[in-house]
Structure formats: C-alpha cells, structure tokens
Design a protein that fits this description.
With 430 residues, this protein is mostly helical. It contains 17 helices and four strands. The mean pLDDT is 84.
Length: 430
C-alpha cells in the first residue's frame, strides 16, 4: 500500500492527520487505511451543488471482539467526522482474519483497498495478505455466486412475508419484508463493489446503492409524504416489529410495501446482470440466476399453523422456510422444463435451415425474453393498482402491447412516483 498523501491539498492532509491521531489514541494496535476517491486522486468537491466525496476509511484490528463492537466504531466515526468537518467521512472496521480471508478469496473490494489505499496509521500489529488477482472468469464466478445467494435469500424472505401477512401476523410479515429489502441491497452491493455493508439501515443501504449505480436511485421511493411514511414504517420494522408491542402496520400498508420491495428487486437484478456481463459478455452470464418473485404468485398451501408454544416457534419458522423454499424450487424447475420444451419446439421449427442446435438455442432465448416482458407488464399494472392509480383501457392496452423490456423498466420506475397511470406511459421523450 501507498503511504504518501502528496496528491492531496494541504487542508485535506491536515484533516487526515487529525483523523490518524484520533485513531491512534483509540486503537493503538490497529491499522487505518484511506481508500476510494481520495486515495486514487479523483475525489469531487463541487461548490455549486455542495457535493463532496467521502473520505473512505478501513480500520483493521487484531481483536475480533473489538471489530464487532458496533457502538465503539459508531462513536469513533462520529469523532472522526468532527475532525474532518465539513468533509464527510465513512469508516468501516474488520478483524484482520476477516480481511485476509477476503483478500485471499479475491474479493475485489479488499483487493482494490490494498492496491490503491494509503496507510494513515500502522502500529505494525497486523499484516495484510498478498492480494490475489482474479481473472475475468473468476470475477464472473464470484459475482454470480454472491448474487445467487443473496438475491434468492431476499426472495425467500419475501415469500415468508406474504405467508405471515395472509395469516394476520402483520408485524412478523413486516420484519421479513425488511429482511427481503435489506438482502436485495446486499446482492447489489456485493456484485457492484465486492463488499457487503454491515448495516440493517435501509436508508444507509439505499444511499450506498445509489452511489454504486444511478438506476438504484430511489429504488425504494421517498418522493412524496406517503412514500416517505411507508418507507419509515418498513425501516422501523427491523427493531420495532420484533420487540415493540406498539408497532402497527395495516394489510393495505403491507401490500403497498410489498409492491415497493418488488420494485427494488427488478432494478437490482438488472444492474447486477449488467455488471456480470461486463466481465465476459452477456452470453457468459448464467441464464439460471434467480428472478424476482411474481407479483400475483399464489401462497403455498398446506403449511403448518404457528405453534401455541413460543419455545417451538423457531423450529416452526425453519420448517416453514424449508417447505416454501422446496416448493419454490419445484415450481421453478417445472417452469424451466416447460420453457425448454416450448422453446425447443419453436426453435426446431424456425431453425431447420440453420441447424437444430442453433434453432433450439434461439427458441429458448426468445421464449425467455417474451416471458420476461410479459412479467414486467404484469408487475407494472400491479404497482399502479397498489398505489391506487386508476388504469384506463387505453393505458392498459399500451402496457400490454409493449414488447420493449427497457421501456417497461422505465415505466415501472416512473410508476413508483407518478401521480396518475397516464403519466407513466405518456410523454416518453421526457
């Protein structure tokens, strides 16, 4: 890692020196690294908009217990921000064992920190591993594994949310919906940056997601007082829905929030697939990566009722989760098999002149594309209905006739903040 800050102005170097002194006082056996735009030299200070790039800091300690002490690092980050004011500061902290494991695995976030970072303080008590350079195949494989795990996990919590809501357990449902939104954000962060924030705060996760990709700006809408009220209701669900008896949420509020979380899942998948395609091209990305849940997907039947004995609740939750996951997988497999058969038949018919193999592949691709477009159109109608926006016959016809997936994506994003259904599909040039 580098040690020179000569590329920074004197005022910034002075603030970083004060930050290093505070860190040395509180973590005398640690390592503090400046990374990101200030380390690379491409930071932004825009006097017109007031935007300033954060000073991104990685703290590394030998003590895992200290690394996990959230209160300690929150207090230290507050003091570092005071020292750097008005410049913003972001601090993340990890044990050296965790950081070195990530480096050896080739997680490109930590590899970039080691390669581009500038050491602000080093007590010589921790030693970082040598970065492993990943080739494009390895980066694609790692990104796909991260996406598949976290996106599928998020969708599993979404299914659980709907199950609880259907049985009147509204606070339970709200908590699981929060977990779904949180994990969709984690999927995006891991694919786009190689790092998962250690945070459950949807506001902070949404801010970070917007910084990583502009299409995630406002993915959970907060443009109107009603949007903001619902967002805060979901944000509070992480703590209050579990521990505060006074937490209240209505079925209508849950339904509206479910639509919003599905509205987050769709752009997350799109930007992740775009990032994965940047490694080896779109054809190298696995076609079996998980998709968002369908808006009108029926609830699983025959699931066991919640137990009366609270001691058995944990086991019941795990059993239900396993049943739901098994049935979702079973349905996906059946759907894929039907899609393969239909695509194969169509491809064989169209591909006789070019050969059976090429025709089958074409049928599969076109069948998947048509199915995805139809799903987006259905999701758009569902979003409009959930927001209470009347859909007249002409608007519905335009939505159902649209075969452009990118245009439907734009309409879906607009539907989250529009004041009428007609506004969503009119004035496309805007």
């Amino acid at each position: 890692m580098k040690t020179s800050l000569d590329h920074l102005p004197d005022a910034k170097r002075a603030k970083l020196a004060a930050i290093a002194a505070l860190f040395r006082e509180k973590v005398p056996l640690g390592l503090l690294v400046l990374f990101g735009s200030h380390a690379r030299g491409d930071w932004v200070d825009d006097p017109e908009t007031g935007y300033q790039s954060d000073s991104d800091l990685l703290a590394v300690t030998h003590d895992p217990a200290l690394a996990d002490d959230v209160g300690f690092w929150r207090e230290l980050e507050a003091r570092l921000r005071e020292a750097a004011a008005p410049s913003p500061v972001t601090l993340i902290a990890h044990a050296v064992t965790f950081v070195n494991r990530e480096i050896r695995m080739g997680q490109y976030f930590f590899v970039d920190v080691v390669r581009e970072g500038v050491v602000l303080y080093d007590a010589r008590h921790v030693t970082l591993a040598t970065p492993k350079a990943l080739n494009d195949d390895e980066r694609l494989d790692l990104g796909q594994k991260n996406f598949a795990h976290w996106f599928e996990s998020a969708s599993g919590f979404f299914h659980g949310c709907r199950y609880y809501a259907a049985r009147g357990l509204l606070s339970h449902s709200a908590f699981l919906l929060h977990q779904a939104a949180e994990r969709y954000f984690h999927a995006a962060s891991l694919v786009l940056s190689g790092y998962k924030e250690r945070s459950h705060d949807l506001e902070a996760l949404g801010k970070k997601a917007a910084e990583q990709h502009p299409r995630l700006e406002g993915a959970l809408p907060r443009g109107t007082p009603e949007d903001n009220r619902l967002f805060l209701l979901l944000k509070k669900a992480y703590i209050e829905a579990r521990y505060t008896p006074s937490y209240r949420i209505t079925p209508d509020e849950l339904a509206a929030l479910q639509v919003r979380v599905l509205g987050l899942a769709a752009p997350v998948r799109e930007v992740c697939l775009e990032k994965l395609a940047s490694f080896r091209g779109p054809d190298a990305v696995s076609p079996s990566l998980p998709r968002p849940p369908a808006p009108g997907e029926p609830l699983p039947e025959g699931l066991p009722p919640p137990p009366d004995d609270l001691a058995a609740l944990g086991r019941w939750v795990r059993d239900v989760a396993e049943l739901i996951e098994a049935r979702v997988r079973e349905g996906e497999l059946r759907g894929r098999e039907v899609g393969r058969r239909e695509g194969k038949e169509e491809g064989l018919r169209e591909g006789e002149a070019k050969g059976l193999r090429e025709g089958e592949a074409k049928g599969l691709r076109e069948g998947e594309a048509r199915g995805e477009v139809k799903g987006k159109a259905a999701a758009l109608v569902t979003v409009l209905a959930a927001r209470g926006l009347a859909v007249d016959g002409e608007t519905r016809a335009r939505i159902e006739a649209c075969a452009d997936g990118a245009r439907l994506d734009r309409w879906l994003a607009r539907a989250l903040v529009a004041t009428s259904a007609r506004e969503v599909v009119d004035d496309e040039s805007r």
